[in-house]
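During the reporting period the student researcher (J.K.) took over the structure-prediction task from the postdoctoral fellow and processed the backlog of single-chain submissions. One of the processed entries is reproduced below for the supervisory committee.
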Amino acid sequence: MPAKTLMVQGTASSVGKSIIVSALCRIFRQDGYNVAPFKSQNMALNSFVTREGGEIGRAQAVQAEAARVLPTVDMNPILLKPETDSRSQVVVLGKVWKNLTASAYYEHTSYLTGIIEGSLSRLRAEYDIVVIEGAGSPAEINLQEREIVNMRIARMASAPVLLVGDIDRGGVFASLVGTIELLPEIDRNLVQGLIINKFRGDVSLLKPGLDFLENKTGKPVLGVVPFFKGLRIAQEDSVWLEDKLDAPVLPGIDIAVIALPHIANYDDFDPLEAAGCSVRYIASADQIGNPDLIILPGTKTTAADLNYIRECGIARVIKQRAETGTPVIGLCGGFQMLGKKILDLHHVESREDSVEGLGLLNIETAFATVKTTTQVQACFLGGNGILEGLQGQEVTGYEIHMGLTIDPNAAPVFRITATPSGMAGYLDGAQSDNGNIFGSYIHGLFDNPGFTTALLDRLRARKGMVTGSVSVFDKHTQYDELARIIRHSLDVTRLYQITGLR
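J.K. obtained the following structure tokens:
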């Protein structure tokens, strides 16, 4: 028998679908079921590389982690990585397929539906239950005939649907009722339960509203999930990042992360925040101040974002701070920006053949037509400045980039010692002579406690602070706490009845 299915859809984007799916994956796993997450089509710049070298949305990697299974490309067969407001790189089964405008993308609906169906079938053959995440709202009238991520997938999977609404943004009763009213009858019948998310206060005060919802829609309210903070579970939604902009400087190590227009994989910096650092996302030059560390993060459009920070004055301030001794780290696209020049002779990203870099590292980068996507193990080679004392540190992470650093006249930072395809041995990254500026292609660097502790100790020493250690961050404790909150909030008995597992 193929696996049971359950789908979580929402009244809008950012209502909490991803976190609810993560919680359900953990709950089913705790209860002894072999569970997999699935999202047919994801639009996100935060991504993850699977063991087989495929690129998927970060949320599905998190959900797989919550389910205690290895993430695979079948869990997110289509990933859209926006390059402009109307154009995206389309990743199919983990590999770049095409770069398409929105209108051109919908011309391939039939082909992509077949890809989705294949991935879903493979998951259902392997697991007891597949928890499916939708996107945006199923009630977008202009998309209902061509969408491949909401009700079309629910029908494909014969999946009962849980509809989530966000009460914190207001209008939750109207949005839940309105969404159901706008669905065709065949889709309306698939909705088997309602969930109100992000509630603050006394749940008993909601009872009249909950009674109204059930009477109006004929659908049971499975529960009310409280607004909670403090759980460190990686996010991929840009709305979450907007809440981090213009944060105040807190005591301790002050880290300024440049909020590039197409910033990618900003969960790279969650461990720094967990270690007690003040991590500020900077969108304008006057917000930079005098941080202890500046980080240029990854980006989907390196050349365009480099031109942006130059035009708005951020690049000038970064160079000024670097010249006066402020350490600067660049990751992936941010690493490429730190060099002297970026070449794009194949016009992978832009119409320009070359773009001048910040000139803080003595390297050049050339964009390639093939994307590098691999998990890596690496060993730190040593250096001066903030890199002093890190020699021999071993790290794990993953690479996602189109560019190759060429003619490296600066000392490398890491030696890649292994990948899933076998031993490697190639060099990664570059550093300045004084060791205060360095870049790397490795995402997930700060998830390595030994490396992060040593780096932060160098920053603490520069400020005359007491050195410390970064405790090993136990993600599974966070997933267990999330599952506890959701179990307490939802009618789990009714949930199991809906899935047919019990």
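The committee noted the following: The mean pLDDT is 92.
J.K. will present the remaining backlog at the next meeting.
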